[in-house]
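Sequence and structure are kept together here, with a separate record for every protein. An example record follows, reproduced without changes.
>
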Amino acid sequence: MIKKILFKLPEYYFIIILFLAGFTPPFYVHYLSLIFIAVLVLQIVFKNKTSGLLLGGIAFFGNLFFLAALFSEFNDFTEFNSEAQRFIIIGITIWVLNLIASVTMIYRYVKIKTRSNQRIKYY
């Protein structure tokens, strides 16, 4: 039961992250965030293996760029004060959560069995 819930969390987590990233007060959400949220909702509904692996892979590699940007911005601090410490701790926490979510998503869609009529036939 808990395993089933944990495997469904990555898409919901990414929906929340995308909403928070695209939200601008008062009451405006960027249209690209809404498009990506719609794609994730469709993934939750249809559970397509190919798109699930693609979304998980994009999230994983995007997370690597996030880590590079995090350390690049961290190097802009002239001294390691409480603000720099808070920046790196929160950034690495978000990075670890994103990494866990993307790897869980990839793992779940790798384990899905495809029916013979769902396979792509190459002629």
Notes: The chain has a mean pLDDT of 90. The first strand starts at residue 23 and ends at 24. The radius of gyration is 18 Å. Residues 2-114 form one domain.
